[in-house]
Design brief:
Length: 239
């Protein structure tokens, strides 16, 4: 079936994960730790931060989890109510996401070209829906998307299939005609469980080629290669 829609992950796919999120993660960890710098570092490490490489581990809670997942993880370290901590973290992330967001190279041009080719575009993120809107707004690309869902939008969180199913229902597209594009195994599993026709990993997040290749149909350096890939895939299917 011809690909008619693309559902993008946000962080690590449309936005540079580490440049966008590490300032926010540090801000949130310090708040959760009550200003204790040492404890804040413990929280980051517990959720997937590697202080030696100054990066986050692929598919860790920091990279792939929802705010709920992070709240639960950090509450196990600092104590207290996980739901209350999640609310605090969500407010920090939503308030600061536009300030720290860094787009991947060629974001606007790539989305424009894909939309001009008649493709329906959407976003599926384990960030909140408001966080997604706030962090993408500075780049003038929100009008390229017909569907934006966060973990709190009513479709469930990744790696569940709900966001893909919600996209398909809202846009009237069969799952087999959808390409899921992301930087983590959570993205690929979401697409596979929903029956998406094409799973594409990108290397602009924390996942490497070896992390993504076993779980995807193709791995690209970035979303800039999507237009060419879809052309190749369409040609092979016609053949």
């Amino acid at each position: 079936m011809t690909i008619q829609g693309i559902l993008f992950d946000k962080d690590g796919t449309l936005l540079d994960y580490h440049a966008t999120w590490m300032p926010l993660n540090r801000r949130a960890a310090l708040a959760a730790a009550g200003g204790d710098v040492v404890l804040a570092e413990r929280l980051l490490v517990a959720s997937g931060y590697d202080p030696v490489s100054d990066t986050c581990v692929a598919d860790s809670v920091l990279v792939a989890g929802s705010n709920d997942d992070l709240g639960i993880c950090w509450a196990e370290v600092v104590g207290g109510d996980a739901a209350e901590l999640t609310d605090r973290l969500s407010r920090i992330f939503e308030a600061g996401s536009a300030e720290t967001a860094v787009a991947v190279e060629g974001l606007g041009e790539t989305l424009e070209a894909l939309a001009a080719g008649g493709l329906t575009l959407g976003v599926a993120t384990n960030d909140s829906e408001e966080g997604a809107l706030n962090s993408l707004a500075p780049f003038g690309v929100l009008d390229r998307f017909d569907f934006i869902a966060g973990y709190d939008s009513g479709h469930g969180a990744k790696p569940g299939p709900g966001m893909v199913q919600g996209f398909c229902k809202a846009m009237g597209i069969a799952p087999a005609a959808v390409a899921v594009v992301g930087d983590s195994r959570h993205d690929m599993e979401m697409g596979r469980r929903a029956g998406a026709g094409l799973l594409v990993g990108v290397l602009t997040g924390s996942g490497g080629h070896d992390d993504l290749a076993p779980h995807s149909h193709h791995v690209l350096d970035s979303i800039a290669g999507l237009e060419a890939l879809l052309g190749d895939v369409a040609g092979k299917r016609r053949a």
